[in-house]
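Weekly puzzle thread! Below is a chain. First person to post its structure in token form gets bragging rights.
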Amino acid sequence: MKYRLGIDLGTSYFKFSIYDQTLNLNGLGRVTVEKDTTKGFLCEVPSSRFIHLLKTGIHQACEKTDISPSQIDVVGYSSQANSFILLDENYSPLTPLILWPDNRVGKLYPEIEQLWNDKSFLKITGIGITPPPELCINKLLWFKYECPDVWNKVRHVMTISDYLTFLFTGRNAGDIGTASLLGLIDCEKGCYWAKAFEILGLNVTLFSPRFQVGTLLGTTNNNICRLTGIRSNIPFYAGSLDHHMAAMGAGLARIADASVSIGTVLACVNFTSQYRPKTDICISPWKDNQFCQLVFDENGAISIEWYKTSFASDYSIEQLVHMASEVGSSNGLIAKPTPFKYCGLETAFNNIKLHHSHGHFIYALMESTADTLKDLVNKLCFAQKPEKIIATGGGAQSDLWLKICSEKLQLDIVRDNCPEPATKGAVLLNC
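Winning reply:
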């Protein structure tokens, strides 16, 4: 039996799935990413803890599969973007892993604004969103200006997936997919964009070489064998952004024309052979001369969690969704997009009446999410409306939520049956 390990480096959890040669999920390890949040705006994971999480998750998955790590035959990954670590000339960490939610900067440096305002930026990078302060390159400038004692020692800037690759193979290499959201990549050419480095005043040699999604990046080394029990010299393949990999694992391009994730945030993904940069869309290089298009919005399942925590803490999410199913409508109640940004029910909802129950509020939140999802699909698929969409994420497990979304979009939306589509996508790349 051949066993494939798919690793998903998520923000809240790292997930480790072991699939057999017929791509059945045999075992799942799931570890909480404990972050250091000193001062309330940092978001860091020490490299030693990162390695411990990898070891723990791999062993959990193997125990569930009833195999030893030495029986794993191939490894692939999916990853968050804009999380990174700085290393010196000997590849020793100078910083912890700094995850993307880290908000130590709190502003945009002028170089970032100059880069985004460059007339070629959208056409070259395919990034159609406004730059947030949490960008990796914005934090690199912070180190450059505020921590010169650290910055002067930096010889390697690795994204979290680059560092994973280095730990497993000893090779300084990374995928083009997750790197595409750095703002440094020429999307059509699939390489670094020299002008971006000129504007930012950064040296391209600090960054890991980039390879196409699905490329064999190397084989596992003795170090990872000693740490985890995985044997040396097994193939390790380049993955991509978690939204891309989850879409692939769920069946995008095989059984559906687009994929939506009803998770903490909403995301919609499709593959295309046409490179057409557009506002609100992020385009990344994919494999086989294709591109992966992504649109996303904050108005996702976080709204349900916000309502539960703020106004219905005595109930579980499942109970609240059941209440919404029982009332069968919002009864005129309207939830504003991203209601968690408002102060209280009265500002987050319109048309509140005394007879409105928890069920009505939850139903209204689901309708608001469906409206946002409709806008995302229209932005992504402006050239041709999809015939079928496959849904992933926690919200996709709700029959009611899928029904509301299907009615709003007037499309066939089917649920993905794989519990961890991002890890499945990671192993599909090397089949």
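Puzzle host: Confirmed. Bonus trivia for everyone else. The mean pLDDT is 94.
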